[in-house]
Design a protein that fits this description.
Blueprint: E1 2-3, E2 6-7, E3 9-10, H1 23-33, H2 35-42, E4 53-57, E5 66-71, E6 76-77, H3 81-93, E7 103-110, E8 113-122, E9 125-132, E10 137-147, E11 151-159, E12 163-168, H4 181-198, E13 212-218, E14 229-235, E15 239-240, H5 246-258, E16 268-271, E17 277-288, E18 291-300, E19 302-303
Parallel strand pairs: 3-4, 5-7, 12-13, 14-16
Antiparallel strand pairs: 1-2, 1-19, 4-5, 5-6, 7-8, 8-9, 9-18, 10-11, 11-12, 13-14, 14-15, 16-17, 17-18
């Protein structure tokens, strides 16, 4: 499948058992015991540097209809909004959750927690999907860091199931809608590398969640406007999200709430480098440890692209590789 142009390769059979009492245990087990299969499915010659995938696993949350791990070019992420949107349709279409019109509720467990999804169903056909996030919060606002090659840059850092640094692309002389993608990637990657050194992250639920996943460059339009605001997310090993990034939209909404720039239940439109769009709004307040937090509702559309069966022949010297 794809959501906003971002791939969602869902493994439906053939993967070895992923063991563990909790979903975070399973995430560690997959990394330690089956990482060769992640590389085979994500890397060339079966994938590419920007491939993204999903490994269904047995849920350990009592309310979950299904649980998944997320995989990419570097490893295993803790949250993925674009994949959650695709998984909502897939869960209903595949019969994991029986369809109910006009909305079918799906409870999806991911490493970051439990997501509540609503899948539009009409005439037996699934459509647009929204999800309600795990608690989203902000750890840094307008914090200045020294970015190699770019000087001092103010950034925000927020958690929307994964931690991201956020910066205005204009600080680098760039425009997320018109600048060359390579220039945007270089700037975002430099921020990520600098922020990993300059900022210490923590999460009240688990240490496994406390890492910087990437950087999102924005058009700077954080104050409310009915017009779409654009951003580009560069995560993992310089991977570029083709969608507006569901966990990134969640983080941006948290930042905008923390700065007092938007009201509760005020929907905004977020646009990606492909022109695809997600909606996002803060729908509830909560706490995450000792921090103010918000539940954010993100919506978008996904589409099927096909079915594949992958094989690894004995003796293949190029089982997986990446050209950069």
């Amino acid at each position: 499948m794809h959501t906003g142009g971002e791939p969602v390769r869902i493994v439906t059979e053939g993967y070895p058992a992923i063991e563990g009492d909790t979903i975070l245990d399973k995430r560690r087990y997959a990394s330690e015991h089956h990482d060769d299969l992640r590389r085979m499915l994500m890397h060339e010659p079966r994938g590419h540097a920007d491939m993204y995938g999903v490994l269904p696993v047995d849920p350990d949350h009592p309310e979950a209809d299904l649980a998944v791990l997320f995989v990419h070019n570097e490893g295993y992420s803790t949250m993925c909004g674009h994949a959650a949107i695709a998984l909502g349709r897939w869960a209903v279409d595949s019969g994991i959750v029986p369809p109910t019109e006009p909305l079918t509720e799906v409870a999806l467990q991911v490493p970051a927690g439990l997501l509540r999804l609503e899948v539009e169903v009409s005439g037996g056909r699934t459509g647009r999907v929204t999800f309600r996030s795990v608690p989203a919060f902000v750890t840094e606002l307008d914090t200045e860091i020294d970015v190699a090659g770019y000087g001092t840059v103010p950034i925000d850092v927020a958690y929307g199931g994964a931690f991201y640094a956020f910066a205005d692309a204009a600080r680098f002389g760039l425009d997320v809608r018109s600048s060359a993608t390579r220039d945007l990637v270089d700037a975002a990657w430099a921020v990520t590398e600098a922020a990993k050194t300059a900022i210490l992250l923590d999460h009240p639920d688990a240490d496994d969640l406390a890492f910087l996943y990437g950087t999102i460059l924005t058009d700077g339009a954080d104050a409310w406007t009915p017009d779409p605001t654009a951003n580009i997310c560069v995560f993992a090993d310089r991977e570029v999200d083709r969608s507006p990034t569901g966990s990134g939209v969640t983080g941006r909404i948290a930042i905008q709430r923390a700065k007092g720039l938007i009201d509760m239940d005020t929907e905004r439109i977020f646009e990606s480098v492909t022109g695809s769009r997600f909606t996002g709004k803060a729908v509830a307040t909560c706490r995450s440890g000792d921090r103010d937090a918000w539940i954010v509702e993100v919506g978008g559309e996904s589409h099927y692209t096909g079915r594949s069966e992958f094989t690894l022949e004995d003796g293949d010297p190029l089982a997986s590789f990446l050209l950069k």
